[in-house]
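tool=predict chain=A
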Amino acid sequence: MDQWNFKDKIYFVTGTSSGIGQSCAQSLLQEGAIVAGIDVQAASIQDPGYTHYTAGITDEERIVSIVEDIKNSFGRIDGLVNAAGRWGNSKPFYEVDTSDWERIISVNLTGMYIVSKYVSRVMIPQKSGKIVNISCIRSSIFRNNMADYAASKGGVVSLTAAMALDLAPHNINVNSVAPGFTYTGMTKGSFDNEEIREQSEKLIPEGRIGQAEDISKVVLFLLSDLSAYMTGTNIYADGGYHIQK
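tool=predict ok
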């Protein structure tokens, strides 16, 4: 059996209009997979194997409808990539308005829970499935002014482990990937600044800012049968940043 076989399998990817979500969707499509994507922005992928849904992941009623539509269209969901997310408010926690705090937690954590809940209900009767959640190095390595973001991404790691235990009896693997400094639409404003980029690169043993494709390669490994004996794991994809802290 080919353990790296995505052809004609069905994947649901969140946050597909940019960054890591877009890269994951494109990588799956290149491997012959069928991809349904969701983003609050319009589709940025044009491919006959891609279906786009414009919606937010915290809209539970809409998520129910989308997951049902994918199931009705294709009969199954083989994998889920939870890549949608947003950056924090970049303030000390004591200056963050509660409504702003809740917005970060809602998108980065609650939305992931909502999507995973309904996709899992499709996977459980199949007795198979792969779920990959995008966390962050900031789930365990902290800097000032990111309490909201760090809390949400720490929650992703904990949610991943809890989901893995609940779904293990159903032959469903759940893992997360923690990107380090990665060039995306969300970070380009910083890394396009030469001084910031060079300072950041000095902190990374591999000496470079990651690209979205660096993360999607790890995600595809976790979606493949090569990772069949892995569940509840958080993998750092950060050029070695975390090992020197």
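The longest strand covers residues 172-179. Residues 14 and 38 are 5 Å apart (CA to CA).
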